[in-house]
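To assess whether the prediction recovers the assembly geometry, we first specified each molecular entity separately, as shown.
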Amino acid sequence: MVNTPILTVEKLNKRFFLHEQKAFIPSCADVDLTVFKKQITAMVGPTGCGKSSVLKCIFRTYLPRSGRVLYHDEAGNTTDLSQALDHRILELRHSDIGFVTQFLHCLPRKKALDVVSEPLILRGEKKEEARGAAADLLRLLNVPERLWHVPPATFSGGEKQRINLARGLISSPRLLLLDEPTASLDPDTTERVIDLLSNIKATGMGMLAVFHHPELVRRFADHVVELKSPGAEPLGMEGNP
Amino acid sequence: MKKVLEVKNLGKIYGSGCSRCLESTGPEFGSNVCPHCGSVVAAADISFDLCAGEILGIMGESGSGKSTIVKMLFFDEAPSYGEAIFLDSERQWNLFSLNAAQQRWLRNHRFGIVYQNPHLGLNFNFSAGGNIAERLLMSDSSHYGRIRERARSLLARTEVMAERMDKSPKIFSGGMQQRVQIAKALATRPPVLFLDEVTTGLDLSVQARILDLILEIQQELGTAMIAVTHDLGVIRLLASRTIVMKNGRVIEAGLTDQILEDPQHAYTQQLVASAL
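The predicted structure of the complete assembly is given in tokenized form:
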């Protein structure tokens, strides 16, 4: 089978410039990676080597300093996510690119079921159908039904993470970015999540993930990218960002 | 995404203005008062697009020019220079080359506004229902029963109790007055809605309910909105894209999560760092 690339990252660099402190904070340096359809690419490396930053640069929560982030869509067009207009990024976030962040961010007054079904409703699907799809996913992820109609603010770390995963998966993006999706899950639930992700992978989704456990990388990833610590670049005190 | 509004190089100068106004004001001077002629450059070189169904946030401190932009687009103030195109379903309107009657028509049929100060948006001599009826009358409706029914359903949608419909909004709480303003603004189902500091001065629980209501309406009706605020929380909740202003200039624009997590400009970094 020929591998179809969905995402190609070339020489991605990110650093922050803090005006107040007049300091550069290096974040990731010269990252090259590819994500293929139906496959998982995992990033590994020590804490602070910029794994999460790479994900945020791809999603454009961070502005990359240099390099290219090429997204190849279904129609065969390529978009450089580091340069694309904001509206194009928003379109892709709606339809193509999902992000399961490390921590769940949601309104403290919104019910879990609504948090999960929101991406579908924003896409224009009917409320009832979106809720139905959300319920199916929550059941698969073993989130007890008594929690569905409660805001996730009081949930345990593992429960929140599953809500977060369900919200990322519900719209079946072509490219899914995962930031430690199993970090606070118990072994049983971790297995369940891995099974679910494996099944979804088979449907054609490409994933770029950071995993907490090296064992998961060995078992689950099709490609492994090792990130170098960007510490080689000294903390600059002068110059422009 | 379909564009509904295109703002190009818009500016507003209060005062006589001189040839050096623009080059001697702005964030790098820390002031929008021209040192040569004393004119106030309230907004300069403002350009942005608004697409159907999206909420654009305009953030900045008091006096940064954010409300001035909305005032110009809603024809409350005439711009000193620049243009804005409104792309309606059938035709394009060049907002600042229209006559007064055309501008009034757009205000009544295509744009809605919710002000921070309910006195600006509501006539306190009329009842809550009367305020909505006024806007409906100005558009095309004239059947009393139908107007009353529409006013009732709009007030119900914005959670104003039916028995308050015939009372003056003067005696309403701040949150309730904002609800009446929202109902009035929505009466003609405008494709564009301007929100000028709509939750400033309201207590937190009331703020949250007003913001939830705005989001629900945006999802239901697909209304494009421009939300002016100095509140980072409002921006985070409502806006998908954000413009940051200082001393009458746009200093940064981008996706809201990028502005909040990876702000580039010194002032934006300071703003984000000051959030509670």
